[in-house]
UniProtKB/TrEMBL annotation:
Transmembrane annotation, as ranges: 9-26, 46-68, 89-108, 120-139, 271-292, 312-330, 336-353
Organism placement in taxonomy: Eukaryota, Metazoa, Chordata, Craniata, Vertebrata
PANTHER family: TRANSMEMBRANE PROTEIN 236
Keywords assigned by UniProt, alphabetized: Membrane, Transmembrane, Transmembrane helix
Protein's recorded name: Transmembrane protein 236
InterPro entries: Uncharacterised_FAM23-like_TM
């Protein structure tokens, strides 16, 4: 009987292989049907394209995919030191996403050259390719984690450093709580009976400040801890969280902008024009962000250079030429992300922004 670790490994590898092969088969079969219709119901052309898809999947699986996965799992040679990028994700993009996007562009070119408008590959192929891409991303993120029990906070993919909302009660100042005959330490109680605790004066930190007694009855501050305060009671389940489920949400949000860009390419007026080429090219370039590990500092720069800035240029051009083919929210998001990245990364380092001001 195989162990749970082995079963989990088999499950992950089967899902990733399905994400590699199924989109290619679906897109190629759709393209084969298109070629058959364009060539006057030529069944030979249809089966040649289908046979080519089967031969391609078999070849890349045996010659590329399996050796790469074996090398990664065994941590052989140079892959032993790889920690900042994901080789499996790179292999998937080159072996699956790139051919699928190329076939989609070829389908548009074939119909435009023949003067037909038979199939613009709406919905199913695009959604399947993107869903498989998201599945591979989720598997790579959740691979180090356990699938049963509580989340392990030591897992690198589950450690989300950042501000956590913490509830604080009102407290009085130190001077109002210390008795005159006491030194610099002792027990103190708030006059309103809400909070009590031990206050100690540190001689090495004379400038240490405390909460003012003029503060409101309740205050919300940001804690540096990565784990929120737990709540008990009948509604305590509302405060429960698990990083493993949040991975799925983060992955779908990570690809939301690319999904919208490819949705625009499904418009018939755009799909049968030359604008389908830059749309699929910039969309494919944006997928290279998946190669970088989730918490790598390079991910922000890659997001601006590979997604937000080129997407903004393409969307503005599409709106000018084709009208309202995409919601204004997306170009606004692209320009805002780009400008804030430039400002907080480069401009704030200039001398003029280092001066004291009201900001």
């Amino acid at each position: 009987m195989p162990s749970a670790k082995t079963l989990k490994l088999i499950l992950y590898e089967v899902l990733q292989f399905a994400a590699l092969s199924v989109p290619i088969f679906v897109v190629m079969e759709r393209f084969a049907g298109l070629v058959r219709d364009v060539r006057g119901q030529d069944q030979t052309a249809y089966w040649l394209v289908v046979a080519a898809s089967i031969a391609y999947v078999t070849s890349v699986t045996l010659l590329v995919w399996v050796p790469i996965k074996y090398t990664i799992l065994k941590q052989r040679r140079f892959l032993r030191e790889v920690t900042q990028w994901r080789p499996a994700a790179l292999a998937y993009l080159v072996l699956c996403t790139l051919p699928c996007f190329a076939i989609l562009i070829a389908s548009s070119k074939v119909q435009v050259d023949r003067g037909h408008r038979l199939d613009h590959f709406a919905e199913l192929p695009i959604s399947l390719v993107l869903f498989s891409l998201i599945c591979v991303d989720v598997i790579e993120r959740i691979r180090p984690c356990r699938l049963t029990g509580q989340s392990d906070s030591l897992d690198p993919d589950l450690d989300y450093p950042g501000p956590i909302l913490t509830h604080l009660e009102q407290v009085s100042t130190v001077s109002s709580q210390l008795q005159p005959d006491e030194g610099h330490s002792g027990h103190a109680e708030a006059k309103n009976g809400i909070a009590s605790g031990r206050w100690q004066h540190f001689s090495g930190s004379p400038g240490r400040s405390t909460l003012s007694s003029r503060a409101p009855s309740t205050a919300y501050l940001y804690s540096s801890s990565s784990h929120p305060i737990s709540y008990s009671g009948h509604l305590g389940f509302l405060w429960r969280r698990d990083g493993r489920s949040e991975m799925f949400v983060d992955s779908f949000l990570f690809w939301l902008d690319t999904v919208e860009m490819l949705r625009v390419a499904e418009e018939a007026s755009i799909f049968y024009s030359h604008w389908v080429f830059p749309i699929y090219i910039v969309s494919f370039l944006s997928t290279f962000r998946m190669i970088i590990t989730p918490h790598n500092s390079l991910l922000s720069t890659a997001g601006v250079l590979l997604q937000d800035f080129p997407f903004f240029v393409i969307r503005v051009a599409l709106i000018v030429i084709f009208g309202s083919v995409t919601p204004l929210l997306y170009p606004m998001k692209n320009v805002l992300v780009t400008l804030t990245f430039i400002y907080f990364t480069f401009l704030v380092r200039l001398r003029i922004f280092k001066r004291r001001s009201m900001f």
